[in-house]
Amino acid sequence: MENSMRTRTVLTTASLLSLATSLANIPTRAADLGRAPIYYKAPAIEPFNPWMIRLRVLGVLPDTAGSSVSVAGAPSLSSPSSGLSISDQAIPELDITYFFTKNVAAELILAVTSHHVSGSGALTGLDIGKAWLLPPTLTLQYHFTDFGALKPYIGAGINYAAFFNQSAANTSLAGLAVTDLRISNQFGAAVQFGFDYMLDRNWGLNFDVKKLWLRPEYSATVNNAIAVTGRANIDPWLVSGGVTYKF
Question: How large is the C-alpha radius of gyration of the chain?
Fold first, then answer.
């Protein structure tokens, strides 16, 4: 009997010690759980979209200095003082830009413009005619990316001037009237500089200046009989401003 009571006392004491030890370890384990490392999800990286478009108002400003006029049988009209005058024009213009990298891109501008051609110098006042011009221009650009929202760029490339819907004026001046007009299509060089100012990730404002070298050959007929030939130094400045959208 006495041995049985001692055994029960020993077991009870052992059980209490085991329970006390377990309870004592609970705060330690909770603290250990509180010190577990916290893992953060890496921010998503947006895919690079290479496309950009711009809608601009484009001013076409021809520089016709040096244009030549050669009139068969009329030396006075073929003098160095004879030349051409081509009207300025303002038109809407769309350009599409593709970025090969964040710095290197190619730009294609698309626009159609109509110009009035008249004489200058000894031919002042002579209405020559009109022509429509499609001048797609492709440039390779370098974009600077170290100026925050301001994104300046420079570029150089090639232009193809396609003339269509050409018409002679058929308006008489001192007994002379241009009755036929033909201007040849031509390739030319182009350079540009400009900048985008980005208002947010997608939208921005753009300003752009291009210089084209266009000097097509032309031919005309005066009074249905007199042949006129020469070179039209158009060499326009293209000055534009508008809205940018980056995809």
Answer: 39
Q: What long-range pairs does 27-35 form, CB within 8 A, spacing at least 24? A: none
DSSP state of 201: S
Write out the two tokens for 225: 């009989």
pLDDT single digits (tens) 198-221? 999 999 999 999 999 999 999 999
As a whole number of angstroms, the distance between CA 193 and CA 167 comes to 34
Angle at 189 between CA 215 and CA 116, to 5 degrees: 40
Cβ neighbours for 61, distance < 8 A, ≥ 6 positions apart:
88, 236, 237, 238, 239
Mean pLDDT of 33-51: 72
Contacts (Cβ under 8 Å, ≥6 apart) of 220: 128, 129, 168, 178, 180, 181, 182, 227, 228, 229
> What's the pTM?
0.78
Is the torsion defined by CA of 120, 121, 124, 129 positive or negative? negative
Closest of 108, 134, 131, 114 to residue 190, by C-alpha? 108
Please state whether beta strands 113-120 and 127-134 pair in parallel, antiparallel, or not at all (unpaired): antiparallel
Q: What is the pLDDT of residue 69?
A: 86
* DSSP letters for 135-168: --EEEEEEE--SSTTEEEEEEEEEEEEEEEEEEE
19-31 burial code (b ≥16 CB/10 A, e <16):
eeeeeeeeeeeee
